[in-house]
Amino acid sequence: MSTVLEIWEAFANDYNDGRQRFIAQAQRAGAELSHYAHPTLSTPDGQPLTLDVARLGPADATRTLLLISGTHGLEGAAGSAVQNAWLASQTAQSLPPDTNVLLVHALNPFGWSHDTRTNESNVDLNRNFIDHAAPRPSNTAYDALHEQLVPDSWTATGRQGVQSAIQAFRDAHGADATFNAMASGQYRHAQGLAFGGQQREWSNLTLERILGEHLPHTERVALIDWHTGIGEYGEPFFLCFNADGSEEQQQAAQWWSHERVLGQRPHGLARPDYQGLVFRGVEAFLPGRKVAGAVIEFGTRGSNTSESLRLDQWLRFRAPQQADAARDAQLRHDLIDTFVPYSGIWRQSVLRHGVEITDQALHGLAQWN
Question: Membrane spanning segments where (predicted)?
């Protein structure tokens, strides 16, 4: 097997293609496959919306490498490609003893199939893993900005009005507070940015089911949740959410280097107080087990990705009121290119780094005592 697939072999053209490529690659690697279909929804062309899971290694292993793609819908094309490339690598055929690898493909299949980052309820899944029985986190700073963040029309004038509102908030409160307001998560505005939802979403419930069914014996977990949009172009950026100074954080730093893992500042700013992360969900679903790892991003447009977050919302909630198919198709391609650039240079870098990072986690997991 090759070390890294060619980009046209690893990267899919859309969700349906991505699903078939992942299944085929998992079968070639000898993985055991499981499928979790959404009970009511389908793709735009009527195909099943399915979260697919592949497991390599013994079911009763006490060490698990958990690899998740597609938390943010359309970003899944990159995470899926890395999963495919790793499955095709020699490492996938020679796992350490007492170790398995669980690949969760397209955690948010609706988002990928509909070319959006959010799910069927406009929920950002990476903000949905809170305790919904408790009072939800407040975000009064976002509340103050909400009405000004998505323009009525996607024109230079409309976008400039948004930028002016954001700049006024930044001037008053600072860049770190502005980033935190818009990225940490909010639970009041269902048509807003970083909406964490009012209940546990299907993907949230299904991930708990998957971990319960597949990892009853695991004691130590190395977690990678693949994302795009933060960091230098085509380069990995690590967001480790293990507690500072913890054994788990030190493990992640040993696997991937202290410089990459510790004290990271996304877009050069203080890390937001992210709420409801998938990372927290995995910890909650595996009580008593040790979970170390990171959200790993691949950089695209730097801080300019924030405008594409607003474009995603505009296409969903404003564009239908101003029908223009040609405009929307072009803007949709721009949105996709923001998070999964078509550039071969970017895609080659993602595959190279992604396979290496996966191997580092697997090797580190085997040494974790």
Answer: none
In 69-182, at which residue ranges do the beta strands (DSSP E only) sit?
99-105
pLDDT digits (tens, 9 = 90+) for 252-311: 999 999 999 999 999 999 999 999 999 999 999 999 999 999 999 999 999 999 999 999
The residue whose two tokens read 């933060």 is 230
Enter the tokens of residue 113. 């199939």
State residue 68 phi and psi, 5-degree precision: -115, 135
Which residue reads 């500072």 in tokens? 244
Rounded-to-integer distance, Cα 185 and Cα 174, Å:
18
Domain 7-135+198-367 top-level CATH class: alpha beta
Rounded CA-CA distance 39/203 in Å is: 11
* Banded model confidence at residue 3, pLDDT cuts 50, 70, 90: low
- What value does the mean pLDDT of the chain take? 97
CA separation for the pair 229, 242 (Å, rounded): 21
By CB atoms closer than 10 A (0-12, 13-18, 19+), residue 18 is buried
Distance of alpha carbon 76 from alpha carbon 105, whole angstroms: 8
CB 83 within 8 Å of CB 46: no
How many helices and strands in the chain, by DSSP H and E? 14, 7
Q: Are 304 and 163 in contact (CB under 8 A)?
A: no
Q: What is the pLDDT of residues 147-185, one digit of tens each?
A: 999 999 999 999 999 999 999 999 999 999 999 999 999
Are 291 and 223 in contact by the 8 Å Cβ rule? The answer is yes
Q: What is the pTM for the complete model shown?
A: 0.97
Two structure tokens written together for 151: 């323009």
The confidence score (pLDDT) of residue 2 equals 44
CA distance 174 to 177: 6
